[in-house]
């Protein structure tokens, strides 16, 4: 009987075009070129030297894109009000300016925002809050040449929405996309939906085709769910079909499709998460690469940074060895 890994390999091979002739040079495996940074309270106490250490390590792994997930989350604000305090976003942008990196700036969200989508006026208030934050972020950080784009942090997922709610979500994205693009001279706007709760690739495709058409979004970074939803055993039956469906949607809407590779796994003992194995991460890249034009990870800081601990350092070294980045 075939193992799950063998079944996955067979399914991937069937999706790929015929192999090259004997003696041909095979293309290199795509590398992960970006990472999210999810600000948390304790990270605001890091000084500039600690942030530069993290960024040095990112560059060592070939990362040249940083997506700051949010500048506001729940009731927490990650733009310092004290002028003498370290502003991590400014440190990241200054470092990126010096080293030819790109930075996307995320706006405002709350954890359970999707439960309020059908509430009257919720999306209008949420968009208004993000537009004010976008204005503040552009005034504070817009002079940096590495400021390359925007990120709307509400993570869309499948729901059996009535048409009026789909229209409201589309308008919610369009309002932010138009505003962010206008104030920044056309910098692209990105989102990162999740395939969680989708009953089928076809239902997923239909919903997102309706939401994204006319949304103004230019980059869609699809979360692969392999870490959060324990999908490593279902790559061929669930993850790959959903990436194929989203590729169709993005092509029709003129949107660039990237993958958000989850580089963590649930702990085998106890609660929480830990770095995934390099073998699983390479499996994710190989499975998803036929459908996307770029890869980012969630996230380097917590699960691959050699500054964080031995497990993260091992994954960092394994990844560098597998991709030969940084040599």
Strand content: 5-15%
- Mean residue pLDDT: 90
Q: Classify the secondary structure makeup into a structural class.
A: alpha/beta
* CATH superfamily placement: Glycosidases
Give the helices and strands as they follow along the chain. HEHEEEHEEHEHEHEHEEEHEHH
Give the distance, in angstroms, between the N- and C-terminal Cα atoms. Answer: 41 Å
What's the β-strand tally?
13
Our count of helices gives 10
What is the second-level CATH architecture? Alpha-Beta Barrel
CATH class: Alpha Beta
Major beta sheet, specifics?
8 strands, parallel, barrel
C-alpha Rg, in Å?
Answer: 20 Å
Low-confidence stretches: 12-26
| Fraction of residues in helix | 40-55%
Shape: globular
Structure write-up:
- The chain is of the alpha/beta class and 327 residues long.
- It has one domain (31-323): TIM Barrel (Alpha-Beta Barrel).
- The protein has helices spanning 4-15, 48-60, 88-99, 122-141, 163-183, 201-212, 235-253, 278-288, 300-303, 310-323, and strands at residues 34-37, 65-68, 72-73, 76-77, 102-106, 108-109, 147-151, 189-191, 219-223, 256-262, 264-266, 273-275, 295-298.
- The strands form three sheets. The chain has an eight-stranded parallel barrel with strand order 1-2-5-7-8-9-10-13, surrounded by four helices.
- Strand 3 (72-73) and strand 4 (76-77) form a beta hairpin.
- Helix 5 (163-183) packs across helix 6 and helix 6 runs parallel beside helix 7.
- The termini are far apart.
